[in-house]
Design brief:
mainly alpha, membrane, hydrolase, single chain, about 0% strand, 2 domains, globular
Length: about 240
């Protein structure tokens, strides 16, 4: 009986520790990545989606408050800033390849950015969403660190924006291969750039796992979209609000 009591005490201590939150986050992603590789990179087995489901289920099961979980997860959250700055690297490396493709890439970047905004807002409005929801959707297709910064700048909820951004990235990474195949888009640079615009970081990770050229163009699109959106979205938001 005393041994069981000791195990319970240890479990209670671990479940309330920020380091436990960090451990389950990293372990869940590694498990998701293992499943993704075992399924031969099936887009439906997205490692981020699997990790989110596992972490959400586990912290709900152990009744861990979100504030306690974030104390541990903030170590990973801190790296988002470094990841955002590192976007300069793929942009710099991809500049030489833009010489003969600058016009179609720029056109797709502008078109993709505008469609991602107005399609989401229109659908949310038709479904009866209030201003707090529609406002948080403006930067949803931008990589999460920049999207949260844009949300703070335009005065909407960064938390809601982060949720929409991550959801967009996961759905984009899962559905993009099927949609691009249906459209007959076979060139890796085209596929990668489209994924980078619509599914930002999570989609870019997916693109890199398939082909290096697709990943390079996806990271280029994600970086360019982030820079342009940081300037354009606040202007667009205030024009329509």
């Amino acid at each position: 009986m005393s041994e069981k009591h000791s195990i319970v005490e240890i479990w209670v201590y671990l479940s309330g520790s920020p380091l436990f939150a960090l451990f389950i986050t990293l372990a869940a992603y590694q498990l998701g990545l293992w499943i993704y590789k075992r399924t031969k990179q099936n887009p439906l087995a997205n490692p981020v989606a699997i990790a989110i489901i596992l972490v959400a289920s586990l912290i709900q099961f152990v009744e861990m408050p979100y504030s306690t979980y974030f104390e541990g997860a903030q170590f990973i959250h801190f790296l988002l800033g470094s990841a955002t700055v590192s976007l300069a690297i793929p942009i710099y490396r991809g500049l030489s390849s833009l010489k003969n493709r600058s016009l179609p890439l720029l056109a797709s970047l502008v078109a993709g950015g505008l469609v991602s905004i107005f399609s989401a807002i229109s659908i949310a409005t038709m479904l009866g969403a209030d201003a707090s929801i529609t406002g948080a959707m403006y930067p949803k297709s931008v990589t999460a660190p920049i999207a949260m910064g844009i949300a703070e700048r335009i005065g909407v909820s960064p938390t809601l924006t982060a949720i929409f951004a991550v959801t967009t990235g996961i759905l984009g990474a899962i559905l993009a291969p099927f949609i691009l195949n249906a459209l007959g888009m076979k060139a890796w640079w085209q596929r990668g750039f489209a994924i980078g615009i619509g599914a930002h970081g999570i989609g870019t990770s997916r693109a890199f796992s398939i082909h290096p050229e697709a990943g390079g163009y996806a990271s280029l699109a994600m970086g360019m979209n982030g820079i342009i959106s940081a300037v354009a979205i606040p202007i667009i938001y205030h024009l329509f609000n």
